[in-house]
Amino acid sequence: MLDKVSLHCSSQHYMAFAHLLAVLFSLAVVRQSDAALTKRVACADGIHTATNEACCALFPVMDDIQANLFDGGECGEDVHESLRLTFHDAIGFSFTEGGGGADGSIIIFSDIETNFHANIGIDEIVEEQKPFIARHNITPGDFIQFAGAVGVSNCPGAPQLEFLLGRPPATAPSPDLLVPEPFDTVTSIIARFADAGFNSSEIIALLSSHTVAAADHVDPTIPGTPFDSTPFTFDTQIFVEVQLRGTLFPGTGGNQGEVESPLEGELRLQSDSSLARDSRTNCDWQSFVGEQVKMQTQFKAAMSKLAVLGQDVSQMVDCSEVIPVPPPPVTLEAFLPAGLDMNDIEQACATAAFPILTAQPGPVTSVAPVPPS
Questions:
Q1: Cβ-proximal residues to 65 (8 Å cutoff; 6+ apart), any chain
Q2: List the disulfide bonds (predicted).
Q3: In the chain, N or C terminus with fewer CB closer than 10 Å?
């Protein structure tokens, strides 16, 4: 009987040991497979490596634009404009009207597209980017999205955006009237984005870009006017400050699409103000206040979708690793500008109270313009 018990125990131990060996062998195979998948190649410059050799060509492009377009890696006016250009090129896509999306048509056919009313002022960054494209073996569609992703990486608090390489050159200009404008209604904005494949939550996520934006042509009398008080930091202040009480300008001249902000030197787009207060989008808008990680995550996801509109991603190479990791923000805390209190917030979301914020100390905030490039 003892011998049978011993034999049974030995058999159990052997089976357990054999199972353990099988598990360890499987893990080893998985690790070897992962290693094979992530094997890096040395780039010709002798400095960088990449998981795909095609991505090596992007390192000199990045060095060039960081030094000569973005002033050594600043989150300045040319970053703001390059990010704006990613949208104006890509949103030229419609399931009903056509358009090639993120294909570089706004540069290839700049004599046509920069004359669209919604693209007024975009010709400046288009002309700035053209020499970089000429110097490097890169298509305009790839360059626009690459420059936007690299530029955003200079802004503290921004997410590291994805970048896929492989957009063929555009063969036709985008149709007109596909780029939403600041004076459009919420209904028309939602409809335009839906026709490009975006829902209302993704619209608000994309508008996170306005935290590092300034206007030159909404009101040409006040160029470089930022949309929030921290235009060089990718933070949630845009979602706070657009919710401050303001007054819509009734005129249709230079002030068309503009809403008066209680902060001196700050401009608010009519479309932002409307989206922050409309029942279809106001809770999405409010949900980003003080939620830095949520804003980063959803902005990155929406930008990844925008950047490949109209493209065949199966023919593209993921070169996201080339995009630098942005620096962290100084603080993750949202705040009220100095001189204001919670009574200055215009509550809009019906299902959740606006977060309680503390005002910065000091006199009433005055926002300085963004210097030209």
A1: 132, 147, 150, 151
A2: 43-56, 55-319, 75-155, 283-349
A3: N
Q: Is 48 annotated as a binding residue?
A: no
Angle at 124 between CA 165 and CA 219, to 5 degrees: 120
Model confidence pTM above 0.85: yes
- The pLDDT confidence band at residue 293, using thresholds 50, 70 and 90, is very high
Q: Is the pLDDT of residue 280 over 80?
A: yes
**Spatial separation of the C-alpha atoms in residues 72 and 51, rounded to whole Å:** 26
Q: Would you say 228 is a known binding-site residue?
A: yes
> Percent of the chain scored above 90 by pLDDT?
75
User: Is 136 considered catalytic here?
Assistant: no
Least confident of 29-43, 161-175, 258-272: 29-43
184 is in an annotated binding site: no
Cα three-residue angle 159-81-289, rounded to 5 degrees: 45
The first and second tokens of residue 173, run together, are 């200009």
HEC per residue, 174-207? CCCCCCCCCCCCHHHHHHHHHCCCCCHHHHHHHH
Cα 196 from Cα 174, distance rounded (Å): 13
Helical (H) or strand (E) element with 50: strand 49-50
Q: Positive or negative, the Cα torsion across 323, 325, 328, 332?
A: positive
Question: Which of 19, 88, 117, 136 is the catalytic position?
Answer: 88
Q: Taking a C-beta distance cutoff of 8 angstroms, is the pair 174, 138 a contact?
A: no
Please state the length of the chain.
373
